[in-house]
Amino acid sequence: MQPLKNLSYKEKRQKLITEITKKSSGALKESEVSTIVSQLNVNVPYLLERAHSYEEIKKQLTLKQFSPDDLIPYTFYTKEYGKILLGTASFGLMENGLLVAPPILKKRQKLVILIDQHRFCSYEGICNKLGKTLKIVMYIP
User: Fold this and answer.
1) Do the Cβ atoms of 111 and 87 come closer than 8 Å?
2) How far apart are CA 98 and CA 113, in angstroms?
3) pTM of the model as a whole
4) Which of 35, 92, 105, 119 could lock onto 62 through a cystine, CB 3.0 to 4.6 A?
5) Among 35, 127, 48, 19, which Cα is nearest to 85's?
């Protein structure tokens, strides 16, 4: 199989469609998969996950916003952003380990979300980006 960078735009798009269809076990219609893929950058690698329970998708919908602790000179923190690709829901927010706002979603609907997670470290006021992860999470009751 060719590396992703050697594929054409159409091949990358088709590969993403195939992977999403496979991960959803065929539960998403072709039009739903096309809607999802049209909102994504096919040149970027994504992690694909499937939430198997309502509680699991609620946990995924709760975005983490960790602030560095001023008492520790070397700190790691995470900031997450989310986007709804299919379905309707609202994201929850967790700051410093406390739930500030709970997520809102219907229990019996298909939902596909994109989580953009940024990891940082801070040492004596200097902030370094450690990495970024793009994750697509599917909930199909």
Assistant:
1) yes
2) 22
3) 0.85
4) 92
5) 35
What's the rounded Cα separation, in Å, for the pair 56 and 71?
Answer: 33
- Residue 3 CA, chain-centre distance (Å), reads 23
Q: Which residues contact 2 (CB under 8 A, 6 or more apart)?
A: 11
Q: Convert the pLDDT of each residue in 54-109 to its tens digit.
A: 999 999 999 988 755 555 555 777 888 999 999 999 999 887 778 888 999 999 99
Distance (Å) of CA 122 to CA 63, 66, 70: 20, 12, 10
Check if the beta carbon of residue 28 is closer than 8 Å to that of residue 21. Answer: yes
